[in-house]
Design goal:
alpha/beta; Rossmann fold; 6-stranded mixed β-sheet; 4-stranded antiparallel β-sheet; binds adenosine-5'-triphosphate; ABC_transporter-like_ATP-bd; ATP binding
């Protein structure tokens, strides 16, 4: 399912939070939404999920404007995993995941055997089968996060929007979740703070800055030292990690920008393409020789 937004803007109390956002996520793509704190990622996801009415502009799924959809129709097509989503604490894990079947359930007959099978599969996919009877309030933060993701999968949506879903997860579950999102046929738009994981698992990145989309493209074109300095205010280099994955290494916080020299948020039109080549962080074959990635200033051959 294709997700498109045109001229999307959202303001509150006279303050512009999101402005002029045009995006197009192709069916089956896994796209990472990145940007510093307060850049508008959650606001954009909420607008795309139909939970926030844009001040102007439009959101469409396969060209159908979401504003024309009922809540039930939206829930049958789009799942949204919010950042710190909370759920009624009297429920068990399985009940929370079963909430994902609500748009498909029959008011009188309840959930079918198929609904229960879908829930069981979603629990298994997130490694929660053993915890299915556990009361919600007895779960850790990471287990709750995985249950929310299982609930989204139980919706069997065509598109999944996730707001920093790896926040509470240990490294194994981060890798499992991002691997799952990258492998699925569903269209995925996921806000992430870990830029190296975003580079590794996303086909494309969208970079938000001050509520505007300032760059988009393959990770190597977006995660450039210049954009990282100007948007995230960090002094960083990018290049292959010891396993050959594009990664970001940080020297520290960037020097304050020279006035008038910062990234100009695109005032309409496509975001500026980035042109810098990444540098080598470590030889792809040197994992054991160099446990700490070394920064080398020579350019790397382009990835194929
Ligand atoms: N309801 C609201 N009222 C006032 N300001 C708001 C509201 N919602 C969002 N904002 C402001 O809009 C800006 C963007 O917020 P948003 O949560 O979308 O950013 P974000 O990129 O998701 O940030 P983070 O990385 O910290 O989660 C922030 O400055 C936030 O304070």
């Amino acid at each position: 399912m294709r997700i498109t937004a045109e001229g999307l803007a959202w303001s509150v109390a006279g303050k512009s939070v999101l402005a002029g956002v045009d995006l197009d996520v192709a069916p089956g793509e896994t796209v990472g939404l990145i940007g510093p704190n307060g850049s508008g990622k959650s606001t954009l996801l909420r607008c795309l999920a139909g939970l926030r009415t844009p001040t102007s502009g439009s959101v469409a799924y396969d060209k159908e404007p979401i504003r024309l959809w009922s809540a039930r129709r939206t829930a049958r097509h789009v799942a949204f995993v919010e950042q710190a989503a909370d759920t009624d604490s009297d429920l068990r894990v399985e009940d929370v995941v079963t909430l994902g079947r609500t748009p498909f359930g029959d008011r009188w007959r309840g959930f079918s055997a198929r609904d229960r099978a879908v829930v069981a599969a979603a629990l298994a996919r997130l490694g929660l089968t053993e915890l299915r009877e556990r009361p919600w309030k007895a779960l850790s933060g990471g287990e709750r996060q995985r249950a929310h993701i299982a609930r989204a999968l139980a919706q069997q949506p065509y598109a999944i929007l996730l707001d920093e879903p790896t926040n509470h997860l240990d490294v194994k579950h981060q890798l499992e979740l991002l691997g799952l999102l990258a492998a699925t046929d569903q269209t995925v738009l996921v806000a992430l703070h870990d830029l190296s994981l975003a580079a590794r698992y996303c086909d494309r990145l969208l970079l938000l800055h001050g509520g505007r989309l300032v760059a988009e493209g393959p990770p190597r074109d977006v995660l450039t030292p210049r954009l990282l300095a100007e948007v995230f205010e960090v002094d960083a280099v990018t290049g292959p990690d010891p396993l050959g994955h594009l990664a970001v290494a940080y020297r520290g916080v960037a020097a304050p920008p020279v006035p008038g020299d910062a990234v100009a948020p695109a005032a309409g039109g496509p975001p500026a393409p980035a042109t810098e080549d990444p540098v080598v962080l470590a030889s792809p074959t040197s994992a054991t020789d160099h446990p700490t990635p070394e920064l080398v200033d020579s350019p790397t051959p382009k990835e194929t």
